[in-house]
Design goal:
Elements: H1 12-16, E1 20-23, H2 26-42, E2 53-55, H3 56-70, E3 79-80, H4 83-95, H5 106-122, H6 127-133, H7 135-150, E4 153-154, H8 156-168, E5 178-180, H9 188-197, E6 201-203, E7 212-218, H10 221-238, E8 244-247, H11 251-266, E9 283-284, E10 288-289, H12 294-303, E11 309-311, H13 312-320, H14 329-341, E12 346-348, H15 349-363, H16 367-379, E13 384-385, H17 387-401, H18 411-426, E14 437-438, H19 439-452, E15 454-455, E16 464-467, E17 479-482, H20 502-507, H21 515-530, E18 535-541, E19 543-544, E20 547-548, E21 560-561, H22 605-613, H23 615-622, H24 638-656, H25 659-664, H26 667-688, H27 695-717, E22 722-735, E23 738-750, E24 755-761, H28 779-786, E25 791-799, E26 804-810, H29 832-852, H30 872-875, H31 877-889
Parallel strand pairs: 1-2, 1-5, 3-4, 5-6, 7-18, 7-21, 8-16, 8-17, 9-16, 17-18, 24-25
Antiparallel strand pairs: 10-15, 11-12, 13-14, 19-20, 22-23, 23-24, 25-26
Helix pairs in contact: 3-8, 4-5, 4-7, 6-7, 8-9, 10-11, 13-14, 14-15, 15-16, 16-17, 22-23, 22-29, 24-26, 26-27
Protein name: PD-(D/E)XK nuclease family protein
Organism: Porticoccus litoralis
InterPro entries: DNA_repair_protein_predicted, P-loop_NTPase, PDDEXK-like_dom_sf, PDDEXK_AddAB-type
């Protein structure tokens, strides 16, 4: 059994005399009781009376209940208000203040108002002062008090006042004496309560010798934390029974990072998939928000399905959650792919149900039916209901979804489940306020409760204790490390409550209002820490990002040390010595050759495009099936806007058929035709995105398309006479032995019978990407080479708001405005015939590479890597670059 964390010698006399020991928190009270039990066992006792040791808040709760049992009238004024109900009442008080500033939002001030009123009660500020000094806050206080009276509720300070008055009147027996252990200060209200409770009140007295203390300068907070964890691990390894403490003033913020570092030091491999979760070999005093526990956060996430729409990422998180329904990994993966294919920032929850039902047909896993059952339960509810009714719905819905999942819960998850169930038992208390609320508000309050609730898993006692500054009060260690002793935190800067007069706060010496008070408090806390262990290391960071920091003046007399003076490899520097081993180099430029009889290849012209830019990416995409879903974007994506233009042009030329009809139309008829076309095209998009295509957005999009089409038709009028021979024409063929499925945007026929292939581009376009040994954009060249009829020109029709024009090559002058045959400039071939020959050779070569399995990680164009970053986990280009850089350095 490890030595207790409290030195019981300092309290033996008080406990034996029957004194009431009060502590600032439950942790210290428990440690004192453990130390007393250890002391009794050392004396050989098998049983002993329990000492009277309690945290002050717990003691006040117990005394208030005794007042209730005695029938004290003031104690029957109401039940204690829970923190979340208190916030609701403050929000109402602020919201209903007709004289508040117009720009003031109630939700931003509720917590400050609650804190300010708590200070008012604990520091016993009179109503007269509030009326005179803070008229706006006083109006809120009056409203809040009326609400408390209406709903028969009282605050924590109200309970303390009842206890004070009851002891003052002698209705409760007084303890012989009270001893305060671990307190830095007490509020005037609590001082008054204790003064009326007992005639003798004593406090801690330092009896231990000052520690051997040193200070250490670290470059950054990360290095400081890493050094403390490595030091603690080294101390624990050298003496497994030693009590080791790490004090982190801002522990709640650094908890996650601290936990990861401790696990990596004390239990390497803890995060490997095959490792079962074990109790950690350390204790961290700071709990985490219940809302951040995976089990609970997933329950709240599932309840978000009650909303009409959710962000795409939220729907994907729900889909991949292991805490509901059957595992069915294939169904979940296929559904996520289908949702991401829509490339929308937000989707209706009904879309998730629809896609799951489609994929469920083959697997019959029941996920879709669970979501349907959840939705049917919601439909049965009225628009407004009490909190108890909403809670019943939430519990039924989670049961319908199969939460918390198929697998057995581990011990920590089971504790989270118990904590969640306790929270749900408190939720119906909101009905005391007599409010009928809609579902979003009911969800909001449940989420707020889970966010405010703190979860601290019960774990075995461990040698290493990580504590915040307040939790460390009164504890004793063998080795102690105190972090964060820079001049920003020791002493703390002032932070007065903005709703109370600053002069009043300084006058009454309230927390965080007076620099002198904070200095004295910091000196007292540091003095206590220096007495808390024989060895104390004090550390500080020299930089916060780029901002330089200085050590606190309070540790100026402490002797400095360096990392080399600490036990273990505390500096975090890895041993750079390496053992030379023979490495075998293997060539991985080639994959197995393509077997068209065994492999089904899809991808069309994309095969040649990817092979030209990076052969490995072509192999990964078209043979391994690697594919990145499109990124969601607000509004219409660039691709969707392009598809809208394509759709409009297809409908337009289906009506016009040839240039002659276009030229013959008068302006009014042409405008009417364009309007009809744009309305029809937009209507098709509206079917799938009704939330986006509201009246205003639809009108703006039609105006954009109308302007774009009219400008483009002006360009079409300047051409030689033509007729449209085909639109969105599909072609199944092969090239270089590879199957190709192509869709040609448009094929025109001139009066001479010659054909022109046109590809619409709503973005930028360039013919330079058709040239060279590895053409970056081989789509149009492939269209031409695979055409069954002679082609006189291939071109882009660039149609965007900045410019409308044709770009490409022709076999003779004058076929298209601004387009001419190749003339050997800017890497062009000298003639149309040489251009066709170059395309035939280069594209055949790319096809042969792909069939032979050539899959080198080589980026042949500067932007190739930039636009294929999603494939880097497969092609490992970043690692290859790093390795290459290292070789160059050598």
């Amino acid at each position: 059994m490890m030595r207790p964390l409290f030195d019981i010698d300092t309290l033996k006399d008080q406990i034996e005399k029957g004194a009431l020991i009060l502590t600032p928190n439950n942790r210290l009270a428990n440690k004192i009781c453990q130390a007393w039990g250890f002391h009794q066992q050392q004396l050989g006792h098998h049983s002993w009376p329990a000492p009277r040791v309690e945290a002050i808040e717990s003691w006040l709760d117990e005394q208030w209940l005794r007042c209730v049992d005695l029938g004290v009238m003031a104690a029957g004024a109401g039940t204690p208000v829970n923190p979340q109900m208190e916030l609701i009442l403050w929000e109402q008080a602020i919201d209903q203040d007709s004289e508040k500033p117009d720009m003031l939002l109630p939700g931003t001030l509720t917590r400050q108002a609650r804190s300010a009123y708590d200070i008012v009660q604990r520091w016993q500020i009179s109503d007269v002062i509030l009326q005179q000094e803070t008229p706006m806050f006083w109006r809120w206080v009056e409203h809040f008090r009326r609400a408390l009276t209406t709903h028969r509720l009282i605050t924590v300070a109200d309970k303390a006042n009842v206890v004070r008055q009851t002891y003052k009147e002698g209705l409760l027996p007084s303890p012989p004496s009270i001893h305060l252990c671990g307190f830095d200060y007490l509020s005037p209200l609590y001082e008054d309560v204790l003064t009326n409770t007992a005639t003798q009140i004593t406090r801690d007295e330092a009896k231990r010798r000052p520690a051997q203390s040193v200070k250490l300068a670290c470059f950054s907070e990360s290095q400081e934390l890493s050094a403390a964890v490595t030091w603690a691990a080294a101390r624990q390894q050298s003496d497994p029974e030693a009590r080791i403490g790490i004090i982190i003033p801002d522990l709640s913020r650094l908890r996650g990072q601290t936990e990861r570092l401790l696990y990596s030091q004390l239990n390497p491999g803890y995060n490997l998939p095959q490792q079962s979760r074990q109790p950690p070999p350390f204790n961290i005093s700071a709990g985490i928000s219940l809302n951040s526990c995976p089990l609970v956060s997933n329950a709240l996430l599932l309840l978000e399905l009650n909303r009409r729409q959710l962000p795409l990422e939220t729907l994907c998180q729900i889909l991949n959650s292991p805490f509901w329904g059957e595992s069915a990994p294939k169904v979940r993966a296929e559904t996520e792919t289908q949702l991401r294919e829509k490339a929308q920032m937000r989707l209706r929850c009904s879309e998730l149900r629809f896609q799951l039902s489609r994929n469920d047909l083959a697997e019959d896993c029941g996920l879709a039916s669970r979501l349907e059952a959840m939705e049917s339960l919601r439909r049965e509810m009225p628009d407004k209901a009490g909190y108890g009714q909403w809670l019943e719905l939430f519990q039924q819905q989670l049961n319908a979804l199969g939460w918390p999942g198929e697998r057995s819960l581990d011990s920590i998850e089971y504790q989270q489940l118990q904590h969640w169930q306790n929270l749900l038992q408190q939720y119906p208390q909101f009905d005391q306020l007599g409010m009928m609320v809609e579902l979003p508000e009911a969800l909001r309050q449940l989420q707020n409760m889970a966010t405010s609730a703190v979860f601290q898993p019960e774990t075995p006692d461990s040698p290493i204790q990580v504590l915040g500054l307040l939790e460390s009060a009164g504890l004793h260690f063998d080795h102690l490390w105190v972090m964060g002793l820079d001049d920003r935190q020791w002493p703390q800067s002032i932070s007065p409550n903005p709703l109370l007069p600053f002069t009043l706060q300084r006058q009454l010496n309230m927390p965080r209002s007076n620099p002198g008070r904070e200095l004295l408090l910091a000196k007292q806390q540091l003095s206590n820490l220096l007495l808390a262990a024989p060895e104390v290391v004090l550390s500080y960071s020299q930089f916060d990002g780029e901002q330089p920091l200085q050590p606190s003046e309070l540790i100026s007399d402490i002797p400095p040390i360096t990392f080399a003076d600490l036990p273990g490899n505390t500096a975090g520097e890895l041993d750079t010595k390496s053992v030379s081993v023979a490495l075998e180099t293997l060539s991985c430029e080639y994959a197995p050759p393509l077997d068209t009889a065994q492999e089904l290849i899809r991808g069309g012209t994309g095969i040649f495009k990817q092979q030209a830019s990076c052969p490995f990416n072509a192999f990964a995409i078209h043979r391994l099936g690697a594919r990145q879903p499109p990124d969601p974007s607000p509004g219409l994506s660039a691709m969707e806007r392009g598809n809208l233009v394509h759709g409009c042009l297809e409908l337009l030329w289906a009506r016009l058929e040839n240039q002659a009809r276009l030229v013959a139309m008068d302006e009014q008829a042409l405008h009417q035709l364009v309007d009809e076309v744009t309305q029809s095209a937009v209507r098709e998009f509206q079917k799938n995105q009704r939330d986006l295509f509201g009246p205003v957005f639809t009108t703006l999009e039609q105006q954009r398309l109308r302007k774009l089409l009219l400008s483009w038709l002006d360009v079409e009028k300047t051409r030689q006479p033509f007729a449209v021979a085909g639109m969105e024409k599909r072609m199944d063929t092969e090239f270089a032995g590879l199957p190709l499925r192509m869709t040609i945007d448009r094929i025109d026929t001139l009066d001479s019978g010659e054909r022109i292939i046109i590809d619409y581009k709503t973005g930028s376009a360039s013919t330079r990407r058709w040239l060279g040994e590895r053409p970056e954009e081989p789509q149009l060249p492939l269209y031409l080479l695979c055409s069954e009829t002679p082609v006189a020109a291939v071109c882009f029709a660039q149609i965007n708001s900045s410019e409308q024009k044709f770009l490409g090559y022709t076999n003779s002058e004058g076929l298209l405005p601004g387009v001419i045959p190749p003339r050997g400039k800017n890497s062009e071939p000298d003639s149309w015939e040489q251009l066709l020959e170059q395309w035939q050779q280069s594209l055949n070569q790319l096809g042969e590479e792909f069939k032979q399995g050539y899959a080198a990680v080589e980026f042949h164009h500067p932007q190739s890597r930039q636009f294929s970053a999603a494939l880097e986990p497969l092609n490992r280009a970043a690692e290859m670059t790093t390795s290459s850089d290292g070789e160059n350095d050598e």
